[in-house]
UniProtKB/TrEMBL annotation:
It comes from Neoroseomonas soli. GO terms for molecular function: glyoxylate reductase (NADPH) activity; hydroxypyruvate reductase [NAD(P)H] activity; NAD binding; transcription corepressor activity. The lineage of its organism: Bacteria, Pseudomonadati, Pseudomonadota, Alphaproteobacteria, Acetobacterales. Residues 114-292 form the D-isomer specific 2-hydroxyacid dehydrogenase NAD-binding domain. This is C-terminal binding protein. Belongs to the D-isomer specific 2-hydroxyacid dehydrogenase family. Keywords: NAD, Oxidoreductase. The keyword NAD applies. GO terms for cellular component: cytosol. InterPro entries: CtBP, D-isomer_2-hydroxyacid_DH, D-isomer_DH_NAD-bd, NAD(P)-bd_dom_sf. SUPFAM superfamilies: Formate/glycerate dehydrogenase catalytic domain-like, NAD(P)-binding Rossmann-fold domains. Pfam families: 2-Hacid_dh_C.
């Protein structure tokens, strides 16, 4: 009989079903741990929740009601960067650490952000259509109206891991860079050649604005109509962060009325996008289906990370990437003391 039960909804997220749990189990071998699937419904999860020593969260929303049904759970592990589909506040109130994979797909997303920047700037999709549709002579006149990339300004909203990796790439193209992030020390920006700036300055002086905010209750709908009005008319808006951080109706209006020149978007307010979304019909917008993190290493890397995090907590250690408020470590987790935690939060 398994010593530890790790509960997970049946099915898989971001990949095909039935892939098994070999990667997750690599770090859990010899611990008497078993990953057990339950129905991917709130009711099915709640029925199985009392048996869970840990939860592998994937494939569905995890509500406060579901988390409240966990009576002995030590850990909720996510195989993604985003944590918006788990009620972290409810988990914190129960004294349950929630972990994500914050550094597993950084390079891929930074590549994608740079790809969208370059493709929107050089009008890649429009140029491709001109060739395919026999409009060869239109290509050069369009690009003759576009300034060279070198010397233009890239502004970041939030300057976390992906933004920093994007900045390293952008530097090679000769871009000036600014960033708004009140939670990052100035030296953390200047070391990468990025100038700390206010949000207003980033918006009003940047030729490219790259959005990197996570989806939290505080950041939802952050970019509003008045923000897009502050941007330069030739500016391009890039978003590889989270769709709900942007008021999409305001973005659409900004594009339709020419407040900004275009956009490159990997994330959207509602996903998948609806067929009647006006963004689908805009020639000055390049879209991708929230796949910036995808590469051949995506599944193995994230699944192994989940297994590593679960192995740490089930052996009485602190996880690598706890996303709960820091107060969790000193107050709500007093019941962890018998397990002799060996790591500090976020260590």
């Amino acid at each position: 009989m398994a010593k530890f039960t790790i509960l997970t909804p049946a099915g898989a997220s971001f990949t095909t079903s039935g892939g098994g749990y070999d990667y997750e189990m690599e770090a859990l071998q010899g611990m008497g741990a078993e990953i057990v699937e339950c129905p991917a419904t709130e009711e099915g999860f709640i029925a199985a929740a009392p048996n869970a020593d840990a939860v592998y969260a994937k494939g569905m929303k995890f509500s406060a009601k579901m988390i409240d049904a966990l009576t002995k759970c030590r850990h909720i592990a996510l195989g993604t960067v985003g944590v918006d589909y788990v009620d972290v506040a409810a988990a914190t109130a129960k004294g349950i650490p929630v972990t994500n994979c914050p550094d597993t797909f950084i390079e891929e997303v930074a590549d994608h952000a740079m790809m969208l920047l370059l493709a929107t700037h050089r009008r890649c999709i429009e140029q491709d259509r001109m060739v395919r549709e026999g409009r060869w002579s239109e290509g050069r006149p369009q690009l003759l109206q576009i300034p060279r990339l070198m010397g233009q300004t890239l502004g970041f909203i939030a300057f976390g891991r992906v933004a920093r990796a994007t900045a390293r790439r952008a530097k090679a193209f000769g871009l000036h860079m600014k960033a708004f992030d009140p939670f990052i020390e100035e030296l953390g920006m200047s070391a990468l050649g990025v100038e700390p700036a206010s949000l207003e300055e980033v918006l009003s002086t940047s030729d490219f604005v790259s959005m990197h905010l996570p989806d939290t209750p505080e950041s939802r709908g952050f970019m509003k109509e008045h923000h897009f009005r502050q941007m330069k008319k030739n500016a391009l808006f890039i978003n590889t962060g989270r769709g709900p951080t942007v008021n999409e109706a305001a973005l659409i209006k900004a594009l339709q009325e020419g407040w900004i020149a275009g956009a490159g978007l990997d994330v959207f307010e509602t996903e998948p996008t609806k067929p009647d979304n006006p963004l689908h019909r805009m020639n000055n917008v390049i879209l991708s289906p929230h796949n910036a993190s995808a590469s051949a290493r995506f599944d193995p890397a994230r699944k192994r990370r989940v297994g590593q995090e679960l192995a740490l907590t089930l052996s009485g250690k602190w996880p690598l990437s706890c996303v709960n408020p820091t107060v969790l470590a000193t107050s709500s987790l007093r019941r962890w003391q018998p397990y002799a935690l060996e790591r500090g939060p976020n260590s």
